[in-house]
Amino acid sequence: MDPVYLRLRKRARQIVSTYPTPRFYIDFDQATRRSRALFDSEPLIAELREFVAENVDDNFGHGMAHADKVSLDAGTLMIIEGRRAGYHGDRMPRRVLVAQCAGLLHDIKRKSHNHAAAGAAYARIVLQSYRLSADEIEDICRAILNHEAFKKTVTITDPDGLLVSDCLYDADKFRWGPDNFSDTLWSMIASFSPPLKQFIKRYPQGLAALTRIKSTFRTATGIEYGPQFIDLGLAIGEELYQTILKDFAP
Question: Would the pTM of this model clear 0.90, i.e. be above it?
């Protein structure tokens, strides 16, 4: 990465560190901890995560670190929303497992054309060798198929399958907040290495795209808490932009 971008990334991360933790993680601390505990203790997740680490298309900041974060937040959302849906006993951890599998695999074909469809098709093949039912595999694959923003979705009539899809989507879009400026943006820069002048010219368009995502969250929890992720991202992005114009612009 060009030294100027290394300096910009350092400054961006300094800015991110001055902003508060999204309220989602504070208000749902117990659910977040439980998702992490299930993620860390489930052998199937460990096996699948090893596969993903070896095969994910690490592109535009959507590699293993991104997959882990989406998987954990999808699990947290499933715990929250699953309670509302009446999940109890062994059903809850099993549905969390399904949501976390979807999170790990959702960008497995990130570099492919129409990566959601390609990823869903690939996941369907991969998951045949895992201890998952046909219905669980179907839920995971349809969630992957529906995880892109501003794209036509496949209708899911089964409430349980729809919940997996919605949890994955919202967890993925949470990353459009502070994570966008601490990690994702710089992975994109590393992939493309654009001239600084071009980067500055296109920067406002990127902020506009963040604004559009605010109204797309799907779960009740995502609709309530997702916009704050985006508002934090927008505030960080605007502060960084002013820093770029003041201290880095040619």
Answer: yes
DSSP string computed for 110-168: TTSTTHHHHHHHHHHHHGGGSS--HHHHHHHHHHHHT-STTS------SHHHHHHHHHH
How wide is the angle at C-alpha 233 spanned by C-alphas 73 and 55, nearest 5°? 45
The b-or-e profile of 121-151 (16+ CB within 10 A means b, else e) is bbbbebbeeeebeeebbbbbbbbbbbbbeee
- Return the sign of the alpha-carbon dihedral for residues 64, 233, 35, 37: positive
Q: Give the list of residues 6+ apart from residue 86 with CB closer than 8 angstroms, or none.
A: none
Q: What is the mean pLDDT of residues 226-245?
A: 97
Identify the CATH number of the domain in which residue 196 sits: 1.10.3210.10
Say yes or no to pLDDT of 222 above 90. Answer: yes
CA angle 114, 44, 222 (to 5 degrees): 55
Query: Domain range holding 47?
Result: 3-248
Q: Sign of torsion, CA 154 138 117 171? A: positive
Number of structural domains found in the chain: 1
